[in-house]
Amino acid sequence: MGETEEMLEYLDIDEIDELFIDVPETVRTDLKLPEGKSEMETVRSVRKVLNENRALDEKACFLGAGIYDHYVPAVVFEIIGRSEFYTSYTPYQAEVSQGMLQALFEYQSLVCELTGMEAANTSMYDHPTALAEAVLMAGRIGKRRRSKFLLPKNIHRDKEQVLKNYLRGTDISLVEVAYDEVKGTIDREDFKEKIDDETLGFYVESPNFFGVLEEDMQFFADMKEDTKAVSVAGIHPLALTLMEPPSSWSADIAVGDSQPLGIPPSFGGTTVGIFACSGRKIRRMPGRMIGETEDMDGNKAYCMTLQTREQHIRRERATSNICTNQALMALASAVHCFALGGKGLEDIARENYEKAHEVARKIDQISGFKAPMFEGEFFNEFTVELPGDIHDELNKDKNILPGLAIGGDTERFSELEPTLLTAVTEKCSEEDIDRLIDFLKEVGE
Amino acid sequence: MSEYRQARYPRHLLIEEHSKERMVEENPLPESIARKEAPLIPDVPEYEVARHFTRLSQMNYGIDTGFYPLGSCTMKYNPKYTEMLAKEPKATGVHPLQPEEDIQGCLRIMYELQRMLAEIGGMSEVTLQPAAGAQGEMTGLAIVHEYHKNNGNDRTEVVLPDTAHGTNPATAAMLGYKTIEIPSDDGCVDLKALEEAVGEDTAAFMLTNPNTLGIFEEDVLEIADIVHDAGALLYYDGANLNAIMGKSNPGAMNFDIMHFNLHKTFSSPHGGGGPGSGPVGVCEKLRSYLPVPIVTKKNDRYHLDHSLENTIGRVKGFYGNWSVLLRTYAYLVYQGKEGLEKSAERAVLNSNYLRKLLEDHLELPYRSLRKHEFVLSGKRLKDKGLKTVDLAKRLADHGYHAPTIYFPLIVEEALMIEPTETERKETLDNFADTVKKILDEDPEIVKSAPHNTAVKRVDETKAAKKPVVSFRMRGR
After folding, report:
1. Fewer Cβ in 10 A, N or C end of chain A?
2. pLDDT band at residue B1 using 50, 70 and 90 as cut-offs
């Protein structure tokens, strides 16, 4: 007798379907799916479909706009590939989960070192959802009866759409702040005009969608001080090794995406939403946090903490509905940071900066092109003014991705002339750069 | 019944051991924003980093370590071919903004996955964008919100049973809905209470079937009628879908909207808390409300289609947790029709078998026939001065992960057990024997458990009293 038969016998039934007698005939259905395959056939057939992709390694890639093609050391994949980590559940049972708990505590610590904030959670889904949660948190920690939130126009437009869905249940309204048409930074006059004593909070992103860095953070610190609005900073974790952190201008919340740290582009998912804030606001934060404590013998231990903010305990009064997050990817970012080290990360950031500026200079020398189009300082991504509407030609060389088309007839920033948004990472070789320049010369003629 | 020993290493953080404060030299940025003091990140040899995290992994329990009967979480074995495929350069090295002709492989996988999930859920169309179950719920309720708005009525309430997952009321509240919780009758939705609760203010009723007690709601079609007659929509929480694949589906039960948990039902790993994926399926009348883009197919080419008329817009950047979608696709190709049906059957068989092994030793409230999971009450433990949590912690000493405890809230000292289909009879027998043995044990040993894990019972109260959630917060 096989074990299925033994189990059926123990349950005193003849066949498995007797366990489904409570599913009424009126709701019974059949599955119309293909037959299964062996593992060998499955791998073969899925690979065949994947081969219909053209991967970045086959191309010179200058595409960014939120996802960046950085090199990830092999050790990152080895560690997150350990099945003790990746096959574990959320570490509610602290005693058996000390490894993941400590690793995530170290991730939180790294986020705090980079941002200068005191507290971080173990992740949101990505940058847009982290921003949305930050605005909701602003609603909890901001001045009462304020509902206006200033959202600059120079951010990825997808973020605004995500935000609008998250704000459906609130009375928070978004007020758009223009960008400086020359520099690409926030238009400070417009910002000043729109911020007032009714303003719940504001968002400042640096680098912003155009790759441009804000250069006068004191302005935002003063605005915050004057109006008591909640300030939310959008950050780039690699750039932060060279940039003053949001704590330096006393931002209340910092959000970003740690994809540039140890996570391949992966078609845009899975990344990690960074979420950090000052220590005093910790009880109003969304998401899971790992805290330090002791076991009953007084040994150092870690556990999920302040769980009474969360949905499984607080239900409709939770600070957020988030449950499953991006924990394993947070681990990838932590391993990446440690593997490269503080100095190593800083060197890569510097290399990104220098290469990007070199590429911008070279493009600027091509007749008809201007780079950077927005003149503000940038990190590793910048805008290029094109010699007329050549958007349709930008993808004609299969071996090169020159960047993202914006402005012109595209749906992104249609108020701009046809423009190119170009990102440069340490992976772009001199040969790639020469190819890009030759290509732009050719299509620009 | 082997005793289990977890590794125990001295605890230190890489940051505290090796970091020196350092200034940033030769900063190319303008003075006003150039960082002066470098972030405190150590520079240690890679082999030390590998050792540090390998040791941490040895202090962590995963499905590959042992049995994980965590109710409502569907901790089934994560097949290794999906991991292998997810690491292929053609899967990881693709940028979401590449031209469509470059990403036909990704789009085809997403398209076929949309179709397969629609079939499994009995839905008309599916979005793969939501990053997790809770975000699926948020997407679903945003659709509910937009739908009622378009029909010119502002409905303000979401009704749920008292057995609902915590994410349900949390999501409803996040979208500004007032939540109305209705009591259960004998472990199922009380139709009378439902009838009284729904009305012209009701936007939706959220339900999972089988419910969180593992009981199939036999009156589901009547429930659907009551909800629809009130002009409300019926939402299916997909956390418990593993029990019914091939037997029934939410569409056949007249649900309007549902989410799937790919990291539960379809075997993608939980990753210590994520990433997951929470695609949302809708019936035909709600198709035009889905987030964009969805993937469509025309002349054998696949496209990112932004043209849905009533779309709620985006809920996440780009197209969802692609690497999880890919794993699920591979899993479905492998399983096929029969594989999924067999999974549901074996999950339910395992659950009922284990339920019968345990029901005389711990109390089983409500009826006995369960689906993929069952809930026991540990209130008898009180006689020995014990609580459910003590039993849960003691199980770790024997190499088992704890069941879900203290949920659902309507069962006193609840233990929620979901064995899944990827366990053999011997494991279930051994687990049941262990539970019985613990019930007969010296209560002091149980109360002070676990003993064999990396640390002993962790003081969670202390952690919450004066929270330290980063090295920086220690006050160096």
Report:
1. N
2. very low
**Probe site for chain B from A63, A87, A247 (most B CB atoms < 10 A):** A87
Q: Do A166 and B174 touch (CB under 8 A)?
A: yes
From chain B, the residues in CB contact with A109 under 8 A are 13, 15, 470-472
Q: Are A2 and B349 in contact (CB under 8 A)?
A: no
The shortest CB-CB distance from B13 to any of A73, A106, A289 is to: A106
Domain boundaries, chain B: 81-335, 344-462
- From the list A7, A94, A342, the residue facing B460 with the nearest CB is A94
Answer yes or no: do A289 and B467 touch at CB < 8 A: yes
CATH superfamily for domain B344-462: Aspartate Aminotransferase, domain 1 (3.90.1150.10)
Which helix H or strand E contains B228, and what residues bound it? helix B220-229
CB contact under 8 A, B329 and A46: yes
Residues 6+ apart with CB under 8 A from A343: B22, B38, B43
C-alpha to C-alpha distance for A272 and A347, rounded to whole angstroms: 23
Residues of B in contact with A157 (CB under 8 A): none
Q: Considering only CA atoms, which of A362, A368, A349, A372 is closest in space to residue A425?
A: A349
Min CA distance, B273 vs chain A (Å)? Answer: 4
Q: Please answer yes or no on whether B34 and A242 come within 8 Å at the CB atom.
A: yes
Task: Give percent of chain B with pLDDT exceeding 70.
Answer: 99
CA distance A130 to chain B (A): 10
Q: How many angstroms separate the CA atoms of B433 and B437, rounded? A: 6
Task: Tell me yes or no: is domain A57-70+342-444 CATH 3.90.1150.10.
Answer: yes
Amino acid symbol at A322: I
Nearest to B456 among A103, A265, A296 (CB): A296
Give residue A401's pLDDT. 98
b (16+ CB within 10 A) / e for B115-147: ebbbbbbbbebbbbbbbbbbbbbbbbbbbbbbb
Cβ–Cβ < 8 Å for A107, A333: yes
User: For residue B475, is pLDDT > 80?
Assistant: no
Residues of B in Cβ contact (< 8 Å) with A83: 62-64, 78
> Is the Cβ–Cβ distance between A151 and A160 less than 8 Å?
yes
Distances (CA, A) of A118 to A254, A330, A336, A343, B273: 11, 17, 21, 22, 22
Q: Do B460 and A42 touch (CB under 8 A)?
A: no
pLDDT value for A308: 86
B167-174 and B133-150 helices, crossing angle to 10°: 40
Partners of A146 in the β-ladder: none
Sequence-ordered strand ranges (E) for A14-54: none
Q: pLDDT at residue B8 above 70?
A: yes
The CATH number fitting domain A74-335, selected from 3.10.110.10, 3.40.640.10, 3.40.50.620, 3.40.30.10: 3.40.640.10
b/e B401-436 (16+ beta carbons within 10 angstroms → b): bbbbbbbbebbebbbbbbbbbbbebebbbbbbebbe
Measured from the Cβ of residue A182, the count of other Cβ atoms closer than 10 Å reads: 11
Largest CA distance in chain A: 85
* Amino acid occupying residue B169: P
The model scores a pTM over 0.95: yes
- Find out whether A363 and A384 touch, Cβ atoms under 8 Å: yes
Tell me how far apart the 2 most distant CA atoms of chain B are, in Å.
73
Q: A173-177 and A148-152 as β-strands: parallel, antiparallel, unpaired? A: parallel
d(CA A85, nearest CA chain B) in Å = 6
Cβ contact, residue pair A315, B169, below 8 Å = yes
For the segment B249-272, the average pLDDT, to the nearest whole number, is: 97
Closest chain B residue by Cα to residue A402: B98
